[in-house]
Design a protein that fits this description.
Blueprint (H helix, E strand, L loop, with lengths): L3 H19 L1 H19 L6 H43 L1
Length: about 90
């Protein structure tokens, strides 16, 4: 038996994640954060490996955050497709 409540929750979460990723405010803020991280790396002193390492960790975390939203979107789209199929199967 398919858990339609779970699928609906996934669909809603996917739509919410998509709104976030498509938001101009989010994208502006995210771009500023990425720029600040890259500037910190570029402007670090040659011997300051700790600063560059921290910038690397921050960069990776930022990219992981964005990828997680994309994963949620993908799961939501899959759930939406399943819900549509279930409705079509019911109607048939």
């Amino acid at each position: 038996m398919v858990d339609t409540a779970k699928l609906e929750k996934q669909r809603v979460r996917g739509a919410q994640a998509e709104q976030i990723l498509e938001s101009p405010v989010f994208n502006e803020a995210f771009a500023k954060i990425e720029t600040a991280i890259l500037d910190g790396w570029k402007n670090s002193e040659g011997q300051d490996t700790k600063v560059r390492e921290n910038c690397h960790y921050l960069w990776c975390a930022a990219q992981m955050f964005k990828e997680e939203l994309k994963q949620i979107i993908g799961t939501g789209r899959g759930a939406s497709t399943q819900l549509i199929q279930l409705e079509q199967d019911k109607a048939a």
